[in-house]
Amino acid sequence: MNQITFKPVFNEIRKVMMTADPSVVKDFLAIQINLTGLGGGTFYVEVKDGRLSVEPYDYHDRNALLTISVGDFKKLADGKLDAGEAFGDGRLKIDGSIEKALELNELMKTAKR
After folding, report:
1. What confidence tens digit (pLDDT) does each residue in 18-53 have?
2. Does residue 46 belong to any structural domain of this protein?
3. CA separation (Å) from 63 to 30, 40, 48, 66, 90?
């Protein structure tokens, strides 16, 4: 049986996310993302002092926690799914600052695909 695990999913996401331009973030951003479904897991995106980090850990002192399926997150990262639409129809759940979640969305738009 061939199971998809979190590590290759995370590595793929991290590779794309690390091409994003952290200068679009106003000051500090710390978002934890919980991916659900096959290959799911937890990681965070942080922009601090103009530096971007994407790491496979919980981030307890975060601005927001996003919960989304692996497939929908990949669509968001690829620009094939609008964050507002995903939030509106319940595919994206945001616990915390919606403004910071929107900042993450703007950061993701700068990533090279």
Report:
1. 999 999 998 999 999 999 999 999 999 999 999 999
2. yes
3. 5, 21, 12, 10, 20
CATH number at residue 63: 3.30.1050.10
Structural domain boundaries enclosing 86? 6-109
- Cα(27)–Cα(78) distance, rounded to whole angstroms? 25
pTM of the model: 0.92
Cα–Cα dist 28/49, whole Å:
7
Residue 1 lies in a domain: no
Confidence of residue 1 (pLDDT cuts 50, 70, 90): very low
> 70 near 38, Cβ under 8 Å?
yes
